[in-house]
Design brief:
By secondary structure, the protein is α+β, with helices and mostly antiparallel strands. 32% of the residues lie in helices and 32% in strands. It is elongated, with a radius of gyration of 15 Å. The chain starts with a strand and ends with a strand.
Length: 120
Amino acid sequence: MTKVSIHNIMFYGFHGRYEYEREQGQKFYFDVELITYDDKSADSDNLDETLDTARVYEVMKEVNENTRFQVLSALCTTIADKVIEKFNNVDEILVRVRKPYVPIAGPMDYVEVEVSRKRK
């Protein structure tokens, strides 16, 4: 088993419950954890046999930039499903997104949503 993590990816996105959130946008922060059960990622120094984190980043960026979500869990789920679909060596994925500016009347740092998926 190999676990690969990418932390605190920042994308500008247009997600939220309210129309002004989907029009003005804001920064969103992502973490992703990827688990492979074959040991090719750990045993090989061949880039074709390992998990390409740059390509994972591009999939996440494409989902974030090309779809506007009202619900953060739908954003995370779409990213998780696309990554598992595109990378045969990813058996499990956990995606977290943090939204710092949320229309909640009270002090807080951010709202965070976490979604995990396993290959079927």
